[in-house]
Amino acid sequence: MEKMNQAFERMKMLVGMEVDDEEEQRQQQESSYMDDFNRNCTLSTKQRLYGFAICLSAGITCTLLSMLVFFHPVKFGITFSLGNLLALGSTAFLIGPKRQFTMMLDPVRIYATAMYIASIIIALFCAVYVRNKLLTLLAIVLEFGALIWYSASYIPFARAMVSKLMLACFDTEF
Questions:
Q1: Per residue in 72-117, pLDDT tens?
Q2: Triad 130, 110, 19: Cα angle to 5°
Q3: Is residue 44 within 8 Å of residue 107, measured between CB atoms?
Q4: What is the pTM of this model?
Q5: By the 8 A CB rule, do 94 and 17 touch?
Q6: CA 109 to CA 139: how far, in whole Å?
Q7: Distance CA 80, CA 64 (A)
Q8: d(CA 47, CA 56)
Q9: pLDDT, tens digit, for every residue of 113-172?
Q10: CB 50: neighbour CB atoms within 10 A?
Q11: Rounded distance, CA 126 to CA 138, Å?
């Protein structure tokens, strides 16, 4: 059991979670809504890992299942967007919703986050409300591009590399 606890402590440090400290838990400071939310929704490390794995698996499953209905853009848009939302939410289990939210609003990735969330909303709007196959398909292409750009914002120099690759692809003469 001791080795299991040590492994969980190492996993906490790897994913950036704070190691349990009794003094930090005792300190009560005036806090915002998100601090209250985080305090009331505390999960053990094991619960966080299970939540992450389940949510990520469900997201990947929805995204893969969306390929089965690829030729029905409305159904494809709904399942693909739901898969993206589940995968995005899975990381909140690892690092907590407050830290996830602050990382998403970091000045380095605020525009990528806004584009990604907006593209998901646009894709769902086109699929559910407008029910136009062409608009839904265009919104999904936009969502996929925003997903790549948002994901690249977490990797150092990845956005510069993606930009150079795109320029190189469109710069070639036919």
A1: 888 888 999 999 999 989 988 888 888 888 999 999 889 999 999 9
A2: 115
A3: no
A4: 0.68
A5: yes
A6: 21
A7: 8
A8: 14
A9: 999 999 999 999 998 899 888 898 899 999 988 988 888 888 878 878 888 888 888 776
A10: 13
A11: 9
